[in-house]
Amino acid sequence: MVDKVTKRSRIQSKKSIKHLLERQRRARINYSLSELKNLVLSAIHQGNPQVDLNGTEKMEKAEILELTVNYIKAIKGHTNPG
């Protein structure tokens, strides 16, 4: 009986740890995406102050990644002609 309780307790503990680690991983991803968005939008605005940044407060993660990919492609195109 004690073994069952101990085993159940251990399983619950592992689930709690996994849940906590997953939350921390998601928090790191969200923080990095937010930083990436701010860096890219700032660089775009510095390069072209006329760019309208309205509506960029709340961007989806996929939009941030697409914006970043397009920005890097644009930079690469300017530095590597042909």
UniProtKB/TrEMBL annotation:
Pfam families per UniProt: HLH
Main location: nucleus
GO terms under cellular component: nucleus
Keyword list, A-Z: Nucleus, Transcription, Transcription regulation
Compartment(s) where it occurs, according to its Swiss-Prot or TrEMBL record: Nucleus
Keyword field contains Nucleus: yes
Domain spans labelled BHLH: 13-75
Annotated GO MF terms: protein dimerization activity
InterPro entries: bHLH_dom, HES_HEY, HLH_DNA-bd_sf
Name used for this protein in its record: Enhancer of split mdelta protein-like isoform X2
Higher taxonomy: Eukaryota, Metazoa, Cnidaria, Anthozoa, Hexacorallia
